[in-house]
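Justification of resources, computational component.

The compute hours requested in this renewal are based largely on the per-chain cost of generating structure records like the one below. Each record pairs the submitted sequence with a full structure-token output. That output is archived, and it is also reused by downstream analysis tasks.
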Amino acid sequence: MQTLVDYVVTRLGAGCSRADICEELVALGWSKGHAESAYRDALIALGAPMPASEKPMTTAPGATTGEIVANIFSFILLHIVIWSTVFLCFELCANFTFWSGLQTTEALKSQGWVSHTAGRNCKQQQVQWPAG
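The structure output for this chain reads:
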């Protein structure tokens, strides 16, 4: 493998790019992994500095401003939908219990009741209907 490293060193000295060197080695039958390894070893042989640890340095991908704004908007929209659903459920429960106990208007009139307002705050009082 040392001869492969020497070849890459001479090609680097001739001014060839990494892509050209790797393409040549793959065309000659070397695997892409061997070509990349030889390129790395050649750079080290030429005196390129090595990191203190053997692990490659990885950087965490940062969020863009657009992603942050979209996430905040989604979070706010989620809360609006949740609270709207909660209030809708409460209103449906309140209206169901109100309407399930009512009789028809004619039945109420026959019993002497009249409704002054409609809805949850329905106030009723007993009145005398005129005969006739």
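Helices lie at 2-13, 18-27, 32-45, 65-100, 105-110. The first helix runs from residue 2 to 13.
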